[in-house]
Write the structure tokens for this entry.
Amino acid sequence: MPRVSTGTGKPWGGRFSQGQDPEAEAFTASLGFDRRLWPYDIEGSAAWARALARAGLISQGELTALLDGLEAVRAELAEGRFPFRRELEDIHMNIERRLIELAGPVGGKLHTGRSRNDQIALDERLYLRDVIAAVDGAVREVQAALLDRAEEHLGAAMPGYTHLQRAQPVLLSHHLLAYVCMLERDRARLRDGSARVNVLPLGAAALAGAAFPIDREVLARDLRFAAPSPNSMDAVSDRDFILEFLSQAAILGMHLSRLAADLTLWATSEFGFVEFSDAFATGSSIMPQKKNPDVAELIRGKSGRLYGNLLAVLTTMKGLPLTYNSDMQEDKEPLFDTVDTLRAILTVAPPMLRSLTFKVERMRAAAGAHSSTATDLADYLVRKGLPFREAHEVVGRTVRHALAHGKELADLTLEELTQFSPLIEADVHHALTVEASLQARAVVGGTAPDAVKRALAAARNLVEQDSR
Ligand code: ARG
């Protein structure tokens, strides 16, 4: 086995005469969590080896030996037989040491002009690039499930709420499409952020730039990055690309928590708008009659850790002097937890949505109750020439009358209604129906059935077209 370090067995052993305290070693090691970056560490190392060869720093024979060695290390990792060693601190040094063992002393040439500081920034960017593509695809599956349910129930009316008070009738499809729109912006944010992920930090070395003639433009192309980072100190010291992802994830989680909260509310006996399938619910350990919407509750609940992870990394980064500081090793666990949490949410959400039973009759009945078309009576009076503010006043008094007599606005007789305004005629009863109320809202983005049908087709197009 080639000797790559003196003294302590660490790659930096030369400078040290004493071994590391075991508690200090356990405390500083990141191997326990950064090992998941191994595919990216190998990909980056292979590209760096090619860059060294292009710069004439290693021969073609040495390049082949390094690439073969990296391939052997990759196989060990992929097959679960890689000998992880915590005393080598992190995934980077574990892979490098194993490469030297398998490829021989030439393995010791790989780290020429490179630092773990540009190496980790590279690994994280390569990792995030894959994550963003996967999250984008998974969000699209949630959109597809929502679109399918919206299409299936096109025409079903429900109460729309403001202040959680019944406000105006809307289509269930319109409500579901609201979430499709939010998720579309979440995907746009991910795509936008990937432009800033897609920048090559390698070649920045420790902080001042590599002291060898590495062509970073070619290296960037080799790794499918848009460009090399323009400043080596920025490249190794910032984690804003991770913060952007964590904030995109927090916003996405917030949207899904609201969807989950709506469904949880709708599944109550009080609402009774939806029933979860047994497959996406749980029972109570004491109350035999219960069916709890745990999956939706946990989708709602897990947004908390997405926010926490963003705050954790923001706080770690705050006030750090340039350039790299070990504090930054703390970026990984929050990042990985956010990735795992999103993956879990986005995997369970589409089948849960597909298994819901919407109680459309109950929704329809609720849509017409509590004088939900009062605004339509005001609009009716406006169409007959009354200024809106006066119409609002007239209808307010009419509603008070209805309430006092235990009636719905729509159930008042024509005689009762005409007491409040001489402009009211026999056609008023049609205007007060849920159907007329929906039809009237035919503006772009409104809840009229035709408008919703068009919005649905447009959303379907968008979701299908930008899936790559
Ligand atoms: N494990 C380190 C991290 O995650 C890699 C970079 C370490 N660089 C250093 N000079 N200690 O941030």
User: Anything to note?
Assistant: The first helix runs from residue 22 to 28. The two ends are 47 Å apart (CA to CA). The beta strands are 157-162, 165-171, 199-200, 227-228, 274-275, 357-358. Confidence is low (pLDDT under 50) at residues 1-7.
